[in-house]
């Protein structure tokens, strides 16, 4: 099966890769839903990762992100991230990488143009539309930091439940899904839309879809092949 997919990779003029939390599992990043340990085990992530939660409990949500940021800063890209970045460098313009992950590990592996559909946990932005007084060079430290004049808060620049995805990245991802000849779907449960819909689009537009995931997912239904392997093992074999 691996050899078949390697042949498809060689043939395809354009390849799209959609990654999810499983991509970073072997780096030691717990998936979003598995990330609740210790102090945080009493909270449901779906109740922390919303704008309403942040407005109601800004310090709690800020601290939860600080905890995840610290954990992510202590891990490294795995062989799967490295294989994807090396492929992009060897074949400029042939591969579009679309990720739901906010951990920045694709970027740290050297990927320069990953489409980060859910943002990046390392970045902040203003909670409310910034006024003239909201200057990034004059932020008051705190949990969360704020504008010392109007009190506008800084928040993690990730896409929370119920929020829109960044338009430019989503449009570029949809275009890649429509035009690719092969889509690799790596380490995602395929349950969160609109990201999961990209695999359906690719399939409807005639691309081959290949899943890399040790577990069964709903997207298997549109896949030509499912490789039941962990990403850090499988991607280097496929992309070498
Ligand atoms: N290699 C490949 N896949 C793996 C590995 C691995 N080593 N380990 C686990 N997986 C698979 C699991 O079988 C599962 O299907 O990764 C998937 C992880 O699923 P989720 O935790 O649901 O992650 P994801 O699909 O990325 O979630 C989508 O939902 O929580 C929100 O915004 C968050 O971006 C996230 C989105």
- The SSE order reads HEHHHHEHEEEHEHEEH
Strand arrangement within the widest β-sheet reads: 3-2-1-6-7-8
Beta percentage is 15-25%
Give the number of DSSP strands.
Answer: 8
Whole-Å distance between the termini?
15 Å
Bound molecules: adenosine-5-diphosphoribose
Radius of gyration: 19 Å
Give the second-level CATH assignment, the architecture of the largest domain.
Answer: 3-Layer(aba) Sandwich
What percentage of residues falls in helices of 4 or more residues? Answer: 25-40%
Question: Quaternary status of these chains?
Answer: single chain
Classify the secondary structure makeup into a structural class.
alpha/beta
Number of helices: 9
Assign an overall shape: elongated
In words, what does this structure look like?
There is one protein chain. The protein has 240 residues and is of the alpha/beta class. It has two domains: 2-28 and 77-118 and 165-239, 3-Layer(aba) Sandwich (Rossmann fold); 30-74 and 123-158, SIR2/SIRT2 'Small Domain' (2-Layer Sandwich), CATH 3.30.1600.10. The chain is built from nine helices and eight strands. It has helices at residues 2-11, 45-48, 51-56, 58-73, 79-90, 105-108, 167-179, 197-204, 231-239; strands at 15-19, 95-99, 115-116, 119-126, 154-158, 182-186, 208-212, 225-227. The strands form two sheets. The chain has a six-stranded parallel sheet, with helices on both faces. β6 (182-186), α8 (197-204) and β7 form a beta-alpha-beta unit. α5 packs parallel to α9 and α7 (167-179) runs parallel beside α8. The longest helix has 16 residues, at 58-73. It is elongated and about 60 Å long. It starts with a helix and ends with a helix. The model has no long low-confidence stretch (mean pLDDT 94). The structure holds adenosine-5-diphosphoribose (APR). Adenosine-5-diphosphoribose (APR) binds next to loops.
